[in-house]
Amino acid sequence: MTIKKKILLTVTTGIIIALGIVFYMFNAPARDVQATQTDFSYSASAIVNEYLTDAKVANDKYLDEEGVSKVLEIKGTVANISEDFKNQKVILLKNAKDNAGVSATFTKETNAHTTNVKIGDEITIKGVIRSGAAYDPDLEMYENVIIDKCDIVSK
User: Fold this and answer.
1) Which of 14, 43, 73, 146 is least enclosed by beta carbons within 10 angstroms?
2) Helices (H), ranges, 36-84
3) Backbone angles phi, psi at 114, to 5 degrees
4) Are 43 and 83 in a shared domain?
């Protein structure tokens, strides 16, 4: 076998392996947050205060080395119920005295579990954190903790 054929065979094999890896990663199943064990349970006020006190420490606590969120259960009072542009329910857990709250976005599979939830209800949600609370001095407003892939654990 000539050197050109060996190089061509090696490159072709490498490309096929790389395409296989990309195909596997692209089609890997999504993380089932609701079937995963909870890592932390807090009140909405407690997690908001952690982020407002020191966001870096809070991120180190709730995110692993790759930035993947640990699974959280957050208990709080429903302050607002809305829908996002994907028709997913978004429930804001916030006490009246708090500057920010926890915005919990549900999935199309868990939207139906929110039908009996009303403003003022005390609920516990389970999900993964996407961003922490912060104060934006330019806008002079607080940003909520954002939790995704949520479902109601208890009402």
Assistant:
1) 14
2) 44-53, 55-62
3) -100, 0
4) yes
Q: Any residues with CB less than 8 A from the CB of 154 and at least 6 apart, and which?
A: 123, 124
CA angle 35, 131, 115 (to 5 degrees): 55
Same-domain check for residues 59 and 118: yes
pLDDT tens digits along 4-46: 888 888 989 999 999 888 888 777 666 666 767 888 888 999 9
Kindly state whether residues 106 and 129 are assigned to the same domain. yes
Tens digits of residue pLDDT in 80-110: 999 888 889 999 999 888 889 999 999 888 8
Positive or negative: CA dihedral 130, 126, 124, 87: positive
Answer yes or no: are the C-beta atoms of 137 and 40 closer than 8 Å: no
Do 61 and 115 fall within a single domain? yes
- 104 vs 82: CA distance, rounded Å: 10
- DSSP annotation of 87 reads S
Q: Return the bridge partners of 91, or none.
A: 81, 104
Range of the domain at 19: 1-30
Q: Are residues 19 and 42 in the same domain?
A: no
Considering its fold, how many domains does the chain have in total?
2
| pTM (predicted TM-score) | 0.75
